[in-house]
Amino acid sequence: MRQLFLFDNMLTGQIPVAIRNLTIVSTVLLQHNLLSGHPGAPFVISEENNTSFLNLQVVNIGDNTFSGTIPTEFFKLPRLRYAGCIISRLGVAILNP
Known about the structure:
- This protein has no helices and 6 strands.
- By secondary structure, the protein is mainly β.
- The chain has a 4-stranded parallel β-sheet with strand order 1-3-5-6, with no helix packed on it.
C-alpha cells in the first residue's frame, strides 16, 4: 500500500502506533476526523522503528481534536515534502516543512 486515504470518515480515538508498519506508504491523509491524543507521536522515527516512514512524503492530520504539541522529530522524516497539521483547537499551522 503506497497511499492511505482515511480523511472525512468520523474516525475517533488515537492514531494507532501500528501505522508504523506501513513502511512503503508515501501518503497518509487523516484530516477531517475526530482523532485525538498526541498528534505526531505515531510518525516519530526512533531507534526501535527506524525503518518506518522512510518513503512518507505527504501527511495531513489537520482538523481533528488532538492535544499537545507536534514533536519536532515528526518533521525530520527523510522524504517529507508536505505536512498538513492545521489544528484549530491548538492554533497551530505548520505546512511545508
